[in-house]
Automatic annotation (TrEMBL):
<protein>
    <submittedName>
        <fullName>DUF839 domain-containing protein</fullName>
    </submittedName>
</protein>
<dbReference type="InterPro" id="IPR008557">
    <property type="entry name" value="PhoX"/>
</dbReference>
<feature type="region of interest" description="Disordered">
    <location>
        <begin position="512"/>
        <end position="531"/>
    </location>
</feature>
<dbReference type="Pfam" id="PF05787">
    <property type="entry name" value="PhoX"/>
</dbReference>
<dbReference type="InterPro" id="IPR006311">
    <property type="entry name" value="TAT_signal"/>
</dbReference>
């Protein structure tokens, strides 16, 4: 064991990770295939099956090429891009796709793909404001239609190429115009103008999958669209739930999970079977949250389990004390002491969930460096949080934080944490954003260096945004290996595997974002014949070997 590995090993004494490491490797040398051995131990402990090796590739070097560049032996198919017709009604695929989630119909060969659409574009979608600084109703409608989500049906044809099936009976759009119902403490409250039903979802960034087979989508930077469209902004900034297969499952916004610039929703179970949802708030100096349901998950209840997200406790992480602090009206009012302005603002739990960030800071939530995606390790139930960056703190390259919940229980109210990996030249990545695990315990991480800073100054070294594989167990723990490089000015977002990990879906968001002259786009990805603008799109990456 090298000194570095010994130190990493000792870090985990007293946690589930130690048990895994000991079981898989003993105290001897870490073999080159330690990852695979670790998985066998993990399968034993948590019932997880090794499927495919994500480490069977030679890492690429950073590049500024205007293409999705992949490690040798892998290829991609463009499944859907902005403006493509998705069904027989003529509905079209939205703009700036983000989170993806595959729902199998026929294993790894056919399924529904949920895709978030995060924001629109004056240049490429709906045009500029008029002289009064306003958009026309037609522009607003387009702005709302191109956000939200798409449900598309995708399949692998006889040649192994992934395509969209536009004859699908399921394919439909959820947009800024779709009716939603509110659930939880803010429903019908004065704080949301007594609303029980609201219009639409937009600013849909990342998300998560529930244990009962629905999708959670996170409303992130909703403020501008709400203002431009003249909508009540307390109706946005929530976690929304949709059933891709069932249009009769009314789209809903779960207010018990708080309202902020939601990045994601990572779902797990506490040791006593209550549902837990970990969430990031993508702002500088914002907090990490988890929600724990009041009632227990009962698998046989199927989609009726959605009611678990209506009642429970929202917690914020106090990283200085290693505690999860309940965001209750009592705690908030106690923390306000005799400050009248705060006592006037926070009178009910609805006020707490609607104005969540301020309440979180009041009760001792730790302001952090843009907490974006969160993933729960399927191996040891440690919780990984991408802290993208925060120039206010001189944290220009970000880091990935790992929470170790007490007793490996996601329901614990105390935790310890470590900085699992830090962005910078030494690691090869900057600005970690979305995360996903494969069955070898590798954390797949995409980066989000802002378009205006790519390929210049302190970000020159990294070239375009990319995708990295970071093992979380074994010899290479914490080391980043680059798997993909994004087209120019694009960000890779929302990676998700098919169940057997033969295909990885990922969004290419905002290629050519810095374009200011439509005649001279800075990217032309996906380089399709007849296109005159770059188009955000979703690709299917194949080439994974068993
Ligand atoms: Fe939409 Fe925080 O990325
Ligand atoms: Ca993101
Ligand atoms: Ca981002």
């Amino acid at each position: 064991m090298t000194e570095l590995n010994r130190r990493k090993f000792l870090t985990y004494v007293g946690t589930g990770v130690t048990a895994l490491t000991v079981a898989s490797t003993g105290l001897g040398t870490f073999a080159p295939r330690a990852e695979a051995k670790g998985v066998e131990a993990a399968s034993h402990l948590f019932g997880f099956q090794k499927k495919v090796s994500g480490l069977n590739f030679n890492p690429i070097t950073p590049t500024d090429k205007d293409d999705l560049v992949l490690a040798k032996g892998y290829k991609y198919d463009v499944v859907a891009a902005y403006g493509d017709v998705i069904n027989k009604n003529g509905d079209t695929f939205g703009f700036n796709n983000d989170f993806t989630l595959y729902f199998p119909i026929d294993g790894d060969n056919r399924g529904l793909l949920w895709v978030n659409h995060e924001y629109s574009s004056e240049l490429f979608v709906h045009g500029a404001r008029n002289a009064n600084g306003k958009y026309t109703p037609a522009q607003i409608e387009k702005m709302l239609y191109t956000q939200g989500g798409s449900i598309i049906e995708v399949y692998r044809d006889k040649d192994g190429v992934w395509r969209m099936d536009t004859n699908s009976k399921y394919a439909r759009r959820i947009t800024g115009l779709t009716p939603f119902q509110l659930t939880g403490p803010a429903k019908g409250s004065n704080t949301v103008g007594s609303a029980t039903n609201v219009q639409g979802t937009f600013a849909n960034c990342s998300g998560g999958m529930t244990l009962w087979g629905t999708v959670l989508s996170a409303e992130e930077n909703f403020e501008d669209t709400a203002k431009d469209a003249g909508l009540n902004d307390t109706h946005y900034g929530w976690i929304v739930e949709i059933d891709p297969f069932d249009p009769n499952f009314k789209p809903r916004k779960h207010t018990a999970l708080g309202r902020f610039n939601h990045e994601n929703a990572a779902v797990g179970l506490t040791n006593d079977n209550r549902v837990v949802v970990y969430m990031g708030d993508d702002k500088k100096d914002a907090c990490v949250y988890k929600f724990i349901s009041k009632n227990k998950y009962v698998a046989s209840r199927g989609k009726a389990n959605a009611d678990l997200l209506e009642e429970g406790t929202l917690y914020v992480a106090d990283m200085g004390k290693g505690t999860w602090v309940p965001l209750t009206i009592d705690n908030v009012r106690k923390a306000a002491k005799d400050k009248k302005e705060i006592l006037d603002k926070y009178k009910t739990q609805a006020d707490v969930v609607v104005y969540c960030h301020e309440a979180a800071l009041l009760v001792g939530g730790t302001p952090t460096d843009r907490p974006e995606d969160v993933e729960i390790s399927p191996f040891d139930k440690t919780v990984f949080i991408a802290h993208t960056n925060n120039d206010k703190h001189g944290n220009f390259h970000g880091h990935i934080t790992r929470f170790l919940e007490s007793n490996d229980d996601l329901g614990a109210l105390t935790f310890d944490f470590e900085i699992f990996a830090a962005g910078g030249k030494q690691s090869g990545f900057s600005a970690p954003d979305n995360l996903t695990f494969d069955s070898l315990g590798n954390l797949w991480t995409v980066t989000d260096i802002s378009s205006s800073k790519l390929n210049s100054g302190i970000y020159k070294h990294f070239a375009n945004n990319g995708m990295f594989v970071i093992p979380t167990i074994g010899e290479n723990t914490g080391e980043a290996f680059q798997f993909a490089s994004a087209p120019r000015e694009a960000e890779l977002t929302g990676p998700s595997f098919t169940p057997n990990e033969t295909t990885l879906f990922i969004s290419i968001q905002h290629p050519g974002e810095e374009t200011d002259d439509l005649k001279k786009p800075t990217s032309m990805w996906p380089h399709r014949k007849g296109d005159s603008i770059p188009r955000p799109g979703v690709v299917a990456i194949t080439g994974f070997k068993y």
